[in-house]
Amino acid sequence: MARFDAGSRWRSRLRGVLPCALLLAMAAPRSARANDDFDPRGRGWNGLSELVSLAADAGVRLRIAERRLDVGTLEADDGLFVVHPRRRLPVGALDAMLRAGGRIVLADDFGRGDALLARYRIERGRPRGARALRLRDRPALLLAQPTGRSPLTDGVRVGVLTNRPAVVRHRALRPLLRLEADEGVLLTGSVGRGRLAVLSDPSVLVNGMLALSDNRRLARALLAWAGAGSGRVVLAPPNATIHGRFGEPGAPLPPDAIGAWLDELSRATPPAGAMQALAAVVAILALLVAAGSLSRRSPYRAEALLPPAAGGGGIGGRWEALVRWRGSWLGPLLLYRHELEAEIARRIGRAGGRWTLRDLVEALRARGDEALASQGRALWLWLDELERAQDLPPGAPWVGRRAFARAVALGERILRCLGESP
Fold this sequence. Notes:
- The chain is of the alpha/beta class.
- It folds into 3 domains: 13-29 and 268-293, no CATH class; 34-263, 3-Layer(aba) Sandwich (Rossmann fold), CATH 3.40.50; 303-418, no CATH class.
- Helix content is 40%, strand content 13%.
- The chain is built from 13 helices and 13 strands.
- It has helices spanning 6-27, 49-57, 91-100, 114-119, 213-226, 255-266, 274-293, 302-305, 314-320, 330-347, 357-366, 370-389, 401-418, and strands spanning 61-64, 68-70, 79-83, 103-107, 123-125, 143-146, 160-161, 167-169, 177-178, 184-191, 194-199, 232-236, 241-243.
- Residues 1-35, 288-313 and 315-325 have low confidence and may be disordered.
């Protein structure tokens, strides 16, 4: 009689439990979505079947990620079309895809796209809409109008109709569609070699709204834009879980994806006893993921990242610790600016950290240092220019160590001149 060791017996049992648990999960009734909102196969008012049909008209090879999408399976010239995500997005993986040359369209008003927007300092909020054009004077139905010529908005005549939209803003980017002055509905910008487009109202793309010619033109243009590289675009509907690491197909499922799966199961009503079996399987999977993906020895040693500084204090002293930094100093410089601005706000007594360049110049002049006021103004104009340029073609500007050191030295002089807060 054949003998099996304990490990083989355990693996055999696990292989037997997993298929049963997965079948129970698939057999369990799923919670109904209201009117199948943003369903790629939904033919109702709120479905996306017309968007899928438009992809063929635009010559785009569209693949629908029904439940899961491994970012590692995407190529550098592929496109990704994310509609109203309800799961957390893997921001690092999507950023890596963009920087390698990919294209991403994020169509989201109040979904889970906020972390990706924050990565590129895109602000999202509700519109004022006081001066925006309205359809039949209804405040929910606002018309977004082009701000100039662009391949994405060519042919839009009257305006793209929105339905209770959000609005997006970026300090350095002019919106391609807007409701009024600074209330953008469509933004595009460069990230490395790739491109990101943000549409702040996914309802623009549903079947009922695509009956309008301007909405249809925009949807077709976005699909063609996303597929401009390889001609391949993956459509990720709201309930799809996007996970993985770009360039590494089959990377271990991250804890966020396991959390999303548990969240999905919590809204289902499975047969009696199914949840107990699934809970046991998920616990086992979580342990296996943790055991297989966590490093036995951390490569992130503090002395390698931030070697001890020879001297210096304050926020300038902390940045002097980066003596072994290699590459552009743009990132550290913009981080230093963030800390410096907070400290200046404290010292000139601005509640909530809000102050203008004029406030700083007047504060320095009041302390009798006209030359430093002029230098401080020039420094902030330079920092503003760097921040605007970092996400625009041909790519982020290079900042050398000496330029960084000069900026820190000037920042420290400004703080010494301002003294402590009143």
